[in-house]
Structures are given as structure tokens and as C-alpha cells.
Inverse folding.
């Protein structure tokens, strides 16, 4: 569904993406890991067309979006939804109004149809009865859930998650990861998540890819990924986790 071919991008005179080759499997949850400032969020923005590559191609099915502009690009973006690090809720709107916003603005929906869909999504993310509250009245985890509800309400084919557990304690981070996994399994959308939560992501991802030095250093199913012999990847996932690589990977 998503494919990047030899994508390069320089920002502020600094090479960030240096020949990205990545194919995202349809209907699966793929997590991208890598060092802070290594370009993971930049990579996500190329997938949805918020950034255009200096060279290379970005494909959504058989459409090369790296060449699109204006309405043609917006038509492809309708297939996407994105959950940002801070949930990006409108502080002046209630939770219900935040979730309803894309339905009213993009789909021009009105009346009971909006209420039914919003209430359904709030219930699915564990916020039933919380629609009247404002973002400032919510905990960090609840704001993440509200942001997820707003993304899901558009019934996207592709969901992008930019470090969705940033700022949360370990228990809350696990609950958000579990919620994302449950929603992905329930609705079957293609999901790409940027995360630094190691080793937790190995338990929820269908595939894990590592961005290193501007390129995809490896991509595999979690068990295979953790058996890598690449010394840089081994160091990253062992230092990044709460257990060593030897503890995390069975020896038999």
C-alpha cells in the first residue's frame, strides 16, 4: 500500500533521508525505530505528502504522490489519518467537538449522523460519556485517546502514529499501545508507527524497521529483527530496552 523508493531529503542544509527504500505491508502494523533526530517524523510526513522528497518516489498503491499537488494530493490524503505526539486537539472545543470536527469540515456531515459516529468512536477508545469535557480537563492518556478517536472517525485506510506514547508513564503507554493494536486488528487499517518504546513495540508490531544514517538499516518481523547480527542495531535495541538483547531473544 505504501512504498518509498530512493527517497532523499535535506533540511536546513543537513541530509536527513539519504535514499529510503521501504515497503509497508497492507493491513499490518509497522513500527519505525531509530535514534532521536534521525528523521523518523520526516519520513512519516513524506508518506502523507506533508513533505515532498528532493529526489525519489512515494507511492500510495499505484499513485505516485511525490508528484501531486493541490486537489489531487488532497484526494489521496483522504485515505490517511494521523495521530500526532501531542494529540493536536483544539483547546477551545470539547472532546465531542474535536472528534466531530473532520466530519463536519471535510465530509459536511450534520445532525444525528455526526452524533452517532462520534459517540461510537469515543466508546471504542474508552471515552464514553466524556464528550462534554475540554482537553485541559483530560489526563495525558485521555488526550491521546481523544486524538485517536478523531483520527478513527474518518474511517481511514492508513493510520500514521508519531510517537503516540510520548510523555506517558509506562502503564499508560502500554494501555495506548494496546488500544492502537486492538483498533488496528478490529478495523484492519494499514498502520505505521514511529516509536522509541523498546522492547514494548516488539510485542505489538507485525514488522519493525530501523532508520539509521538516513536509510532503512533493517526491516523484519519482531522475532527475526531481534536476532540481527548488525552491531549498531543490536546496541540500539539492547540499550533502548529495559532488558538486554540476550534476555529479550530466546537462544533456542
Amino acid at each position: 500500500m505504501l512504498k518509498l523508493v530512493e527517497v532523499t531529503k535535506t533540511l536546513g542544509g543537513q541530509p536527513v533521508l539519504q535514499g529510503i527504500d521501504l515497503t509497508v505491508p497492507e493491513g499490518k502494523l509497522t513500527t519505525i525505530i531509530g535514534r532521536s533526530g534521525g528523521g523518523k517524523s520526516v519520513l512519516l510526513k513524506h508518506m502523507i505528502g506533508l513533505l515532498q522528497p528532493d529526489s525519489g518516489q512515494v507511492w500510495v498503491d499505484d499513485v505516485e504522490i511525490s508528484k501531486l499537488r493541490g486537489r489531487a494530493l488532497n484526494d489521496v490524503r483522504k485515505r490517511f489519518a494521523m495521530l500526532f505526539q501531542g494529540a493536536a486537539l483544539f483547546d477551545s472545543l470539547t472532546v465531542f467537538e474535536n472528534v466531530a470536527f473532520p466530519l463536519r469540515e471535510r465530509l459536511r456531515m450534520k445532525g444525528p449522523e455526526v452524533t452517532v459516529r462520534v459517540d461510537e468512536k469515543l466508546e471504542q477508545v474508552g471515552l464514553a460519556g466524556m464528550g462534554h469535557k475540554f482537553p485541559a480537563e483530560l489526563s495525558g492518556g485521555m488526550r491521546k485517546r481523544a486524538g485517536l478517536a478523531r483520527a478513527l472517525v474518518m474511517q481511514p485506510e492508513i493510520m500514521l502514529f508519531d510517537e503516540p506514547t510520548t510523555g506517558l508513564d509506562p502503564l499508560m503507554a502500554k494501555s495506548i499501545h494496546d488500544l492502537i493494536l486492538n483498533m488496528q486488528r478490529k478495523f484492519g487499517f494499514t498502520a505505521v508507527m514511529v516509536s522509541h518504546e523498546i522492547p514494548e513495540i516488539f510485542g505489538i508490531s507485525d514488522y519493525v524497521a530501523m532508520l539509521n544514517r538516513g536509510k532503512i538499516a533493517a526491516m523484519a518481523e519482531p522475532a527475526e529483527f531481534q536476532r540481527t547480527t548488525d552491531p549498531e542495531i543490536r546496541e540500539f535495541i539492547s540499550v533502548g530496552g529495559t532488558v538486554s538483547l540476550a534476555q529479550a531473544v530466546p537462544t533456542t
Q: What stands out?
A: Residues 170-187 form the longest helix (18 residues). The chain has nine helices and ten strands. The two ends are 35 Å apart (CA to CA). The mean pLDDT is 90.
